[in-house]
Write a structure and sequence with these properties.
Low-confidence stretches: none
Distance between the termini: 54 Å
Helix content: 40-55%
Mean pLDDT: 83
Strand order of the largest sheet: 1-2
Shape: elongated
Radius of gyration: 24 Å
Number of strands: 2
Strand content: 5-15%
Length: 130
């Protein structure tokens, strides 16, 4: 499990320069985990819609980093799930990729008892097409 050390200022700059999901991926943790670290360290994060506003050409307000009594390093530990996923053998990775790529088959019955009237009508129409 990899660990990384950053300062509050470095982490603040990172979460305000790109979406949390991208920053979290770099550290091998989830965006929720990164948000928890930021909350604990009193690092403000961009609110919902921040990146959409930036993409639309607006200039959303950036919340300034509040002063802190301690400026120690923040230790971020990679989550065990991310190491497990990356440790799959190439053969197993290929097998998983093939499984995911297969289409899902949905079997329709001739009748649906107790279904909503729109569902029953759609089912009857699909039966007529077959």
């Amino acid at each position: 499990m990899a660990t990384t050390q950053v300062t509050r200022k470095e982490l603040y700059d990172q979460v305000w320069s790109e979406p949390m999901l991208h920053v979290a991926k770099r550290y091998g943790i989830s965006d929720v985990g990164l948000a928890k670290i930021c909350r604990k360290q009193k690092i403000p994060c961009p609110p919902r819609g921040h990146w959409a506003k930036k993409a639309a050409g607006q200039s959303p307000i950036q919340i300034p980093l509040p002063k802190s009594d301690k400026e120690s390093k923040i230790i971020i530990r990679e989550s065990p799930e991310s190491t497990t996923r990356s440790s799959l053998s190439p053969d197993l990775q290929q097998q998983v990729a093939e499984e995911i790529g297969r289409p899902f088959l949905i079997e329709l019955r001739d009748h649906l008892r107790g279904a909503h009237s729109l569902i029953s009508a759609a089912n009857q129409q699909s039966q007529a097409i077959r």
